[in-house]
Structure formats: structure tokens, C-alpha cells
């Protein structure tokens, strides 16, 4: 028997040739090895992301997964942001963790609300795995703009937007 090892980085059919030599006799054996797809394993759902309407989320991690294929260019993900916006995003390898990858994306939500983000991670062959993360989008915080009242009469109470001004009190805001 002849034994050997080799690490294949991607799925497919690969030809091999082995030369077996004993004393002065030599035999060459040709063959094909089929490398099958390892399952892509999505990590447990990540905690919900927080965002503010109108402010961009930039390069946020949407999912993490592991798989035996070590070639990052074999992966991509379809992302449905939950607000009728979809896109295809790239997948990045996690430095120092062979076989571990993250899906990152950037998006801006126009309106506040809770959005379920659905992903399908593709392996470059014919396999995809679903993942999901929630994004909680807060409303834009109100901005108070002070008003200046220049034409006031002593002893008269004035009402402005969000302000109560009593001119008899030296224009103190109450």
C-alpha cells in the first residue's frame, strides 16, 4: 500500500500521478480525486445592530461563518436590508483564524424601525447558507434651535415655539 496526504483548497476533480519504484522497477499510477464541498457553518446570530435614521452603518459585521475552503474569493453574500434594498457584498477572511470568514456591509436607513436583515452566503460552487441579523433604527434626535425675540413689550407674556417668555420678568425663560 502507498499512502500520502495533500490539502486541496477548493472543491473539484483533480488528476494525480504516483510513481512507485522498487529496486529497478517502476510503475506509474494515474487517477482522479474528487474533493467534495464541506458544509458552511454560520455562527449563532449576532446581537442586533443599532443605527440612526439617515446615518450610515459602515462596514458592520452581518454574519460570521466557518468552512474548510480557505479561498476567500470563493464567497459572496446577497443581503436584503429589510427596507426593500438588496445588494451583493464581499466576504472577508478573519485574520489569524483560517477557515473563518465575516460578511460585512454598509447601509443607510431612511426611516426608524426594526429591520430584519436576511443574508444568503454563497460558496462559489452551488451552495448557500442563510443568516439573519436585526437592525434597530432610531429616529433622528430633535435639535432645539433657540429663537431670539427682539420686539417685546414689558408686562406682556409671549408664546414662542417651545418657549414661554415673560417680558415683565426680564425675559427669563420659564
Q: Could you explain how this protein is built, in words?
A:
The chain is mostly beta strands and 174 residues long. Helix content is 0%, strand content 53%. It is built from no helices and 13 strands. It has strands at residues 12-22, 25-35, 41-42, 49-52, 56-66, 76-80, 86-93, 100-108, 113-122, 128-138, 157-160, 163-166, 172-173. The strands form 3 sheets. The protein has an 8-stranded mixed β-sheet, with no helix packed on it. The protein is rod-shaped. It starts with 11 loop residues before the first strand and ends with a strand.
Task: Outline the fold blueprint.
Layout: E1 12-22, E2 25-35, E3 41-42, E4 49-52, E5 56-66, E6 76-80, E7 86-93, E8 100-108, E9 113-122, E10 128-138, E11 157-160, E12 163-166, E13 172-173
Parallel strand pairs: 4-10
Antiparallel strand pairs: 1-2, 3-5, 5-8, 6-7, 6-9, 7-8, 9-10, 11-12, 12-13
List keywords for this structure.
disordered C terminus; mainly beta; rod-shaped; single chain; 174 residues
The unreliable regions are 163-174
- What's the pLDDT, averaged over the residues? 82
Helix content: under 10%
Count of DSSP strands: 13
Structural class: mainly beta
Concise summary:
This protein is mainly beta. The chain has no helices and 13 strands.
